[in-house]
TrEMBL record:
Cited CDD domains: HAD_Pase_UmpH-like
Source species of the chain: Balaenoptera acutorostrata
Catalytic activity: O-phospho-L-tyrosyl-[protein] + H2O = L-tyrosyl-[protein] + phosphate; sn-glycerol 3-phosphate + H2O = glycerol + phosphate; sn-glycerol 1-phosphate + H2O = glycerol + phosphate
Gene Ontology MF terms: metal ion binding; protein tyrosine phosphatase activity; sn-glycerol 3-phosphatase activity
Necessary cofactors: Mg(2+)
Family: Belongs to the HAD-like hydrolase superfamily. CbbY/CbbZ/Gph/YieH family.
The EC number(s) this enzyme carries: 3.1.3.21, 3.1.3.48
Matching InterPro entries: HAD-like_sf, HAD-SF_hydro_IIA, HAD_sf, PGP_euk
Protein name, UniProt field: Glycerol-3-phosphate phosphatase
């Protein structure tokens, strides 16, 4: 796309050339990446991205991957990173660099669902999300297709519910249905039942500029039907960064957040005091940045990165020099 002049907001959103990148990386220990739209689109790696991460590892930089996608376990994400050429640990603990919303939602429920009865969640989400919950002792019901039963609303409301469900968890669910929405609302009418959303992304970018509806669309449907506000785990919520910080011992001043979305990746970085880089291989554009810079809305003004690149491959010259 044609370049849009940015950087008018206190010098933020400056193109990260090789010289600036060398200076920036000299003061950094840890680089945190979003995945979809940054490292890959669908099943295709962004050109030059694997080589960039290999060069960062060779320079001794600690890498972490923060993804709002709840459809894979940590181990599955680590396998995809290796398969697409990004490297990373193997064997037991291979997923230690990955902080996805499935894993972090499990940590959140482990903190919140203490005491009897044993923790149980109604999950509008993937097998992977359920696996991460069950790994920390939260049993799961509701995963998979759930078509309407009976011939009308009365029959739908007569469907039996599982006992002792203490949370409704909404993640990416290709089997989302009216029956699931109805059951979720019924569980949420029970005293003390939590409503947790893995993230609020409204779309998921794929190859060739295509996209599909994201988890945020499903969370909003449940929130509206239940007249409740969900606890959100993923970016830009600070909780997901706290999960990384607790395991990595991060110094925010020596950490970069790299992402393709202003409203999740960049806002998380700004909120948590990290340096931020927007890559233009995903959702947000420089026109979006300029709009935020010129906005009278303080929350939008926060969604401006320190730097931008066309692709994270733009970092390679600084790493090879």
């Amino acid at each position: 796309m044609a370049e849009v002049e940015a950087g008018g907001d206190e010098g933020r959103c400056v193109r990260l050339n090789a010289e600036r990148a060398q200076e920036l990386l000299a003061d950094v220990d840890t680089v945190l990446f979003d995945c979809d739209g940054v490292l890959w689109r669908g099943e295709t790696a962004v050109a030059g991205a694997p080589e960039t991460l290999t060069a960062l590892r060779a320079r001794g930089k600690r890498l972490g991957f923060i993804t709002n996608n709840s459809s894979k376990t940590r181990e599955a994400y680590a396998e995809k990173l290796r398969r697409l050429g990004f490297g990373g640990p193997t064997g037991p603990g291979a997923g230690s660099e990955v902080f996805g919303t499935a894993y972090c939602t499990a940590l959140y429920l482990r903190q919140r669902l203490t005491g009897p009865p044993a923790p149980k969640a109604y999950v509008l989400g993937s097998v992977a999300l359920a696996a991460e919950l069950e790994a920390v002792g939260v049993s799961c019901v509701g995963v998979g297709p759930e078509p309407l039963q009976g011939d009308g609303p009365s029959a739908w409301l007569d469907e039996p519910l599982e006992p002792d469900v203490r949370a409704v968890v909404v993640g990416f669910d290709p089997h989302f249905s009216y029956m699931k929405l109805t059951k979720a609302v019924r569980y949420l009418q029970q005293p003390g039942c939590l409503l947790v959303g893995t993230n609020m992304d409204n779309r998921l970018p794929l190859e060739n500029g295509r996209f599909i509806a994201g988890t945020g669309c499903l969370v909003r449907a449940v929130e509206m039907a239940a007249q409740r506000q969900a606890d959100i785990i993923g970016k830009p919520s600070r909780f997901i960064f706290d999960c990384v910080s607790q395991e990595y011992g991060i110094n925010p001043e020596r950490t970069i957040m790299v992402g393709d979305r202003l409203d999740t990746d960049i806002l998380l970085g700004v909120t948590c005091g990290l340096k931020t880089i927007l890559t233009l291989t995903g959702v947000s554009t420089l026109r979006d940045v300029k709009s935020n810079q010129e906005s009278d809305c303080l929350s939008k003004k926060k969604m401006v990165p320190d730097f931008y690149v066309d692709s994270i491959a733009d970092l390679l010259p600084a790493l090879q020099g």
